[in-house]
């Protein structure tokens, strides 16, 4: 066994582990994929080259995020669009819709990355914020979502901005032909169809079959999902979150809301219900 931890951790020099890999203590878990945390796991699971390619993609996107020209900085552009949708248009949520089964858990990762980072109501100076900050993030692989929550996205009373992710080629490099086209072509056709449907809607004499349209969306479209592409994709969203944190003037790198629940749970587990209730009562008084 190996340990990935901080150098001050009890695990750092534990003889029960073959080796310990250290990470800086200022790296939050949601930003640790490109640190020793991701490095140890990905390298053992897929090989060192896969992790190196992953890092190359992330580094290239980080470099792009330094561009001062907003038209050449997709993460900054994406961030400002998101701020406009959240603060000017007052949309409460954003849906992440990857049309790739390999990214089935990517929306869940972004839930943590975004909501844990910018779900704040106090600014960096400790002052109360009088405007809305981070949106609720959710999502599923595209065709799964089409047969479930897309109904609300198309015809629900709330407008929810959509972020599609799609690729020209299958990530395995192999594909099957079904009715004169490959499954990947069909997947991409679904992406285009959904974007058009959300944007344009459909008139119908039957109100139940009418679609208002005017649902905003963006598309990240790549040639193929590879370790390098995945690294760039992850970096894009991490930089987007960072830029939005700057605009909202919040600290995107702490998570005090997570710590409170842990503290109360420890009190309950130690049968110290009085301490837990006292903590809760203190919160109510404040």
Structure explained in plain terms:
α9 runs antiparallel to α10. The model has no long low-confidence stretch (mean pLDDT 91). The termini are far apart. The protein has a 4-stranded parallel beta sheet with strand order 4-3-5-8, with helices on both faces. It is of the alpha/beta class and 286 residues long. The protein is globular and about 65 Å long. A hairpin with a 2-residue loop joins β6 and β7.
Shape: globular
The separation of the N and C termini measures 46 Å
- Helical fraction equals 40-55%
Helix vs. strand class:
alpha/beta
The count of DSSP E runs of length 2 or more, i.e. the number of strands, is: 8
Radius of gyration: 22 Å
Largest beta sheet, briefly? 4 strands, parallel
The helix count comes to: 10
Low-confidence stretches: none
Mean pLDDT: 91
Spell the H/E element sequence. EEHHHEHEHHEEEHEHHH
Describe the strand arrangement of the main beta sheet, using strand numbers. 4-3-5-8
Strand content: 5-15%
């Amino acid at each position: 066994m190996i340990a990935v931890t901080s150098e001050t951790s009890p695990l750092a020099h534990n003889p029960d582990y073959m080796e310990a890999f250290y990470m800086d203590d200022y790296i939050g878990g949601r930003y640790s994929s490109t640190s020793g945390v991701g490095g140890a796991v990905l390298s053992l699971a897929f090989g060192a080259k896969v992790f190196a390619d992953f890092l190359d993609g992330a580094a290239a996107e980080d470099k792009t995020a330094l561009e001062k020209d907003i038209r050449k900085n997709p993460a900054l552009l994406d961030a400002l669009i998101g701020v406009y949708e959240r603060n000017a248009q007052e949309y409460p949520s954003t849906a992440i819709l990857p049309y790739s089964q390999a990214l089935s858990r990517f929306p869940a990762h972004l839930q943590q990355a975004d909501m844990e980072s910018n779900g704040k109501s106090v600014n960096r100076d400790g002052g109360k914020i009088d405007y809305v900050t981070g949106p609720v993030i959710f999502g599923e692989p595209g065709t799964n979502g089409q047969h479930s929550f897309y109904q609300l996205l198309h015809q629900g009373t709330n407008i929810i901005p959509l972020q599609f992710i799609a690729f020209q080629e299958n990530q395995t490099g192999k594909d099957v032909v079904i009715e004169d086209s490959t499954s990947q072509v069909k997947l991409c056709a679904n992406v285009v169809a959904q974007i058009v449907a959300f944007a344009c809607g459909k008139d119908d004499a039957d109100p139940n079959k009418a679609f208002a349209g005017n649902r905003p969306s963006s598309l990240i479209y790549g040639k193929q999902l590879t370790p390098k592409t995945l690294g760039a994709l992850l970096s894009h969203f991490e930089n987007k979150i960072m830029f939005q944190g700057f605009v909202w003037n919040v600290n995107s790198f702490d998570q005090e809301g997570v710590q409170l629940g842990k503290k109360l749970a420890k009190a309950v587990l130690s049968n110290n219900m009085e301490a837990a209730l006292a903590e809760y009562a203190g919160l109510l008084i404040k």
